[in-house]
Amino acid sequence: MKINLERLEKNLKELSQFGRNEEGGIDRSLGSEAEEEARNWLLEKALDMGAAIKIDAMANIWINWKTTNCDNRPITLGSHHDAVPDGGMYDGALGVLIGLEIMQTLKENRVPLKHPLQVVSFTAEEPNPFNISTMGSRGVTGKLTLEQLQASRHLITGESLTAALKRAGGNVQGLLKAQLGKNDMAAFLECHIEQGRNLYDSQLSVGTVAKITGIYREFVTVIGEANHAGTTLMSHRHDAFLAAAQAALAVEETAKALKRRDVVATVGWFEVSPNSANIISGNTKFIMEFRFPGEPVKQQLLQRIDKEFYGIENNRGICFHREVILDQAPAPMDEGIKKIIGEEISKEQAPLSPAAEESSGLEFIDHVPMLVSMAGHDAVHMSGITKTGMIFVQSIEGKSHCREEKTNSKDIEIAGNVLLNAVLRLDKELTHENLN
Amino acid sequence: MKINLERLEKNLKELSQFGRNEEGGIDRSLGSEAEEEARNWLLEKALDMGAAIKIDAMANIWINWKTTNCDNRPITLGSHHDAVPDGGMYDGALGVLIGLEIMQTLKENRVPLKHPLQVVSFTAEEPNPFNISTMGSRGVTGKLTLEQLQASRHLITGESLTAALKRAGGNVQGLLKAQLGKNDMAAFLECHIEQGRNLYDSQLSVGTVAKITGIYREFVTVIGEANHAGTTLMSHRHDAFLAAAQAALAVEETAKALKRRDVVATVGWFEVSPNSANIISGNTKFIMEFRFPGEPVKQQLLQRIDKEFYGIENNRGICFHREVILDQAPAPMDEGIKKIIGEEISKEQAPLSPAAEESSGLEFIDHVPMLVSMAGHDAVHMSGITKTGMIFVQSIEGKSHCREEKTNSKDIEIAGNVLLNAVLRLDKELTHENLN
């Protein structure tokens, strides 16, 4: 039994028309007409298949198919259908449509599953104008409050999130009732493009995700002394901007020194005050971000940063005020699911040579790459309520969040068949006993 | 003959009430009610003295007094009456009011001058919401176009500059007619607080200004590659922000390496794009500013900067686009006036010990400090049309552009008497012959 690649690619193409802009990118964020059209298209597809549909409080779309009348919990496949501005056609869409394709393949082949099969398309996974990303998966796993949802408005149109979700079929008042518990799902599997170039650099089609990166962010305020840019001698300055610039370079250096593929550090947001060509900055703020595979690495980074920042403070007579604004632990994927996906991958994908494995910088188990996802995903939140696994598919040149995003047909096909077989194995191997 | 310190300080105090805010600072920029009140107060003072008043196209206030019916050109004293936001009571105001005090002293003593005496208070010298500083002096010395003036609007209120100048008694249509030629003035003298700590550090009251600093500014655009902050390996980044941070630190280092009191470099304006915590910056812009005493020093700075920037480009795979937006040559003060002010200073101010002179880092001629003004002044523009000189008065701790700005009475008195005697000498020594 194989998935139907032609049908899957036809669906990918159809869905990609919603929000397609003149340059070929896709604009499809929550609140837009294109997002609504994409939803309607998905619902029609599901109805055509004869599946049952549920739209929850967060406007997540749940597509259900059940072959037997057992009371097992569902095995769920899915991802999201929204896109970043000017984004590509694979990020999110591939995970949802590969789920639908697997459902359709199993249905056509009349495979009797012991578990109901479910496909989910989450609401607003990407950074969006309502400023809550992974919104749908966070909402149903108890990580958002009603107050948060009710306070949010579209940055440009001003529409309330409440109204936008209502238009999409949701209902924020039902947030609590929609929350999933530990007994609501047997497993969650997400297929996603890698958004990095590990698979591309090694010319591999797919890999198992071992864990999803931890993310740590500090909001740093540098307090110096604003002064006249002409009359203040170089030796009398307490330039908050230069101190912040030096700190950002130290952050970069700290991450680079570890020489790890699963550690990155970024200062992407930076604001100088008073920001005038002829005034020495008295106050500069920035957000420092680390992504890391585990607590010991995070501590190692922070220890060095503490030391570097302390040195800058002493040297320049300025002061750093640091506030932790995000400290999200890495999310390890379920061991059992990782193993199943790994085994299914090794049946579909030819191994690299030992030399190529060695030089790739990746970790392999039985020749299957065990990747760390450096981006966040809906699977992070789902991993808190059910056994969760992810499979990554090669994205050419590692491109994502841009219109040039592209994944080859052969890689999509391998991912689809791996996932199809993983579902069959999970259906067989998951029992009430081994679920807890 | 001496100035009346008590009267001068009373006037300083009266003028400082216009725009005084709750914290004790002064808000008095062009367009504000306080600026209008300050103008009206000045005009009343002048009328009380029996002086003639002229308000020109740029709303500069000219106060004239003539003892004889000769056709000599006027000797002009002055500065400006506007203030930076939350500024102090000496910057600008001292130069205008010391001028008025000298006029009044000479008038009371019925001193017959061969030259008409004139006090000017220039419009909008400070950085202001219309975004044209030294506006009044630039306007009357032919450095602004009608188009520039007509295009400018108040950043907050939106009022056109045309309307604001009209309210102040000006008329932009008269710009060309108001422009001063090389034969319109015998000399211009400006007294100003130092806005630096050279005099304060050496505990001197006053100094002659030898020249006003050159200012060079480049608008630099750094073009890198925007990318995902999670999935882009440290070694694959072309971070425009980090390149700009490194460039700014190189600019600082370059200026510091010269170890000169008359060279400073500043990056005060800096803008990161897209400026998002989870996106590596693809584009960062900044303004780099140097202040320098002469062309060779400027070239020395630029040569090293070129080399540093080139190194960063190669290292990070980014690109600097550099545009010169200001290249204002240093303005040397008139030799004759410098000499007269210097001689008058040496009569009023005790010399430092040779050791103190040596360790001050300043240049002295006959024990009189020859200062480089590191800030721009109306005198820069006046030096293009007439013999121009400046005297600096100590500002405690070098403070300026802040409410803590303070100058001691004894220093004000010395400055006033030096300038009074300089006017008397100029009146005697300036003839038609030595003016060209």
End-to-end distance of chain A: 31 Å
Alpha carbon gyration radius of chain A: 24 Å
The fraction of residues assigned to DSSP E strands of chain A is 15-25%
| Unreliable runs of chain A | none
CATH class of the largest domain in chain A: Alpha Beta
- Most residues in contact: chain pair: A-B, 56 and 56 residues
- What is the CATH superfamily classification of the largest domain in chain A? Zn peptidases
Label the CATH architecture of the largest domain in chain A: 3-Layer(aba) Sandwich
Question: Secondary-structure blueprint of this entry?
Answer:
Two copies of one chain form a homodimer.
Chain A: H1 5-16, H2 33-48, E1 52-55, E2 61-65, E3 75-80, H3 93-108, E4 117-122, H4 135-140, H5 146-151, H6 161-167, H7 175-178, E5 187-193, H8 198-202, E6 206-212, E7 214-223, E8 227-228, H9 240-257, E9 264-273, E10 279-280, E11 283-292, H10 295-316, E12 319-328, E13 331-332, H11 335-348, H12 354-360, E14 363-365, E15 368-373, H13 378-382, E16 388-393, H14 409-429
Parallel strand pairs in A: 3-4, 3-5, 5-16, 6-15
Antiparallel strand pairs in A: 1-2, 2-4, 6-13, 6-16, 7-11, 7-12, 8-10, 9-11, 14-15
